[in-house]
Specification:
4 strands
Length: 72
């Protein structure tokens, strides 16, 4: 037996509030669209929207303050 790490693509839901903890897309986002070309995320502060190919994997779900205004 070998230790294996498994990643599962995350199925985004429109209206979902998410926090990405690292990488170039880190921070708080609102999911505003889900389609064949990817997921549309909106910054809750600037309201700018970006469409990215699905890239996230579920890490955890927690109750927390959103959007975070510090530590991003």
């Amino acid at each position: 037996m070998e230790k294996v790490t498994t990643f599962t693509p995350y199925e985004f839901i429109v209206g979902e509030k998410i926090h990405i903890s690292g990488g170039p897309r880190r921070g708080d986002w609102l999911v505003t669209g889900v389609g064949s070309k990817g997921v549309t995320l909106q910054c809750p502060i600037s309201k700018k929207e970006f469409i990215w190919k699905n890239f996230c994997y579920l890490s955890s779900k927690e109750s927390q303050v959103w959007p975070m205004t510090t530590g991003q």
